[in-house]
Amino acid sequence: MKFTRTALLGVAAAAIAGSVAFAAGHANVEGAVKARQGHMQGYAFNLGVLGKMAKGEVDYDAEAAQRAADTLLALASINTQDYWAPGSAAGEAEGSRTLAAMWDNIPDAIAKSGDLQKAAMTMAESAGSIDGVRAAIGAVGGSCSACHKAYRQPN
Ligand code: HEC
User: What's the 144 CA to ligand 1 centre distance in angstroms?
Assistant: First the structure.
């Protein structure tokens, strides 16, 4: 096959344009993966504060419990839609553990986020006593696990 000079230039230009688009998309996807993982770490930290009190590993402290519950609720109320950028599934983006299935089941993923928000609301209303924390924590943890089971790649 013979390439003309113009055709070759055309190929090079397309390759450069493609790599620029890739670089921009790549940065965006990488940021999205980090943002959602950071968001999840925020959930884990605050749930951990409440979990340790519920188990009696740490003395119950009403103010600390309320702070953790309020923060959990605030986090669960954030719109994280842009953290789930297309092209950022496990296998597509470095470090990602989100199963591609999530993008095929967006209404379900949103419902699962809603379950967490409801559970976090109950926790925020109940954190004023250790019995309240203990009563509310199962639903919070359950809503985390339900989504992980469906959409997080196992370790
Ligand atoms: C709507 C679904 C959903 C809900 C609800 C959810 N998670 Fe996640 N979580 C995920 C997915 C998906 C990942 C994988 C993210 C990735 O690496 O792309 C994840 C990852 C994590 C990680 C690992 C973060 C990292 O640094 O890699 C932790 C910790 C975590 N979740 C904790 C929680 C806790 C605690 C809750 C509940 C308070 C929760 N998650 C609720 C879907 C969810």
Answer: 7
